[in-house]
Every structure is written in C-alpha cells, then in structure tokens.
Amino acid sequence: MRYSSLCALVLALVVPDLSVRPLSLAQLCEGSGRVVVGSVKSIESAWNDTHTRIETTVRVEVTETLKGSAASSVLVTVPGGTVGNVTQHVGDAPVFSAGEKVVCFLRRESASSEVYGWFRGKFTVVGDSIREIKGQTYAGLRSSILSLCEKK
Fold it and tell me: Is 9 left (phi over 0), alpha (psi -120 to 50) or beta?
C-alpha cells in the first residue's frame, strides 16, 4: 500500500510536465528553423542503432517553404512506429500518413529534422481546411505563418 501511494505521488508530480504544452502559431514560428508545406511520399520505421527504440523517417516532398531555406524534400524523424510485429507508440509524437498534405514546423534547416512542438507542429491539409483547427482554411493558416515568420 505504501509503495502504491508513493508511485501515485511521483506520477502526479511528474506526468503533468511530460505533456506537450499548447503553442501559439507565433511560438511555433519562433521556435522552428524551417516551415514547409508538402506531401508525405514515404514512411519507414526502423530500430535505432542500439535496438532500444523505434524511429520513423517520413519523406515530405516540399511544394512550398514558408520559413527557412528551400528544399525539394525533407526527411522528418519522429519517435515510434512499427517494425515487424513490434509497435512503439509515443503519445505526443506527430502521426503521418502516406499521401497526406502537411504543414510542418521543423526544428532545423538540415536535410533531416524533427517536428518542433511535437504533434502541435504538424498540420494536415484536407481540401482547403486544416484538420486540427476547426474553421481554419489553408489559405488563412499560410497567410498567418508568412506574416508571423517574417517578423522574426
């Protein structure tokens, strides 16, 4: 009983700090090195070198760069994925699907990067709407990003 009470106390103190805090569009622009719009062309998961975790590499064919240097494609690395019959799920990591159109806030301008802000730094474009923001059009999001990123 004493052990379970201690575990509950530790979890109560630690877990809130493990969740992803809300980030405004301005914070996403400020914290990212590159913002790209593009289509997901491939998704490949593999064990890391020490075989302790699965990482997924997503290749995004870039159609527009809203911040940072232009590139025809970028590799985005996210934690988790499936290798064989083993799946590793990381709760706040962004999830990508082949063929989807995305807007990604990336940490660096390098050829391979992570999404800044975890799942909050990846938006899915469906038609002219942004799936993650009710009532937000792609044109409106794009305009806001360009405006906010140019001020930095």
Answer: alpha
What's the pLDDT tens digit per position in 80-124? 999 999 999 999 999 999 999 999 999 976 667 899 999 999 999
The class (CATH top level) of 20-150 is mainly beta
> Is the separation of the CB atoms in 34 and 68 below 8 Å?
yes
Whole-angstrom distance between the N-terminal and C-terminal Cα of the chain?
53
- Residues 66, 145 contacting (CB under 8 angstroms): yes
What gap in Å lies between CA 61 and CA 42, rounded to an integer?
Answer: 9
Domain boundaries, given as residue ranges, for the chain: 20-150
Residues 15, 146: Cα–Cα separation, whole Å = 35
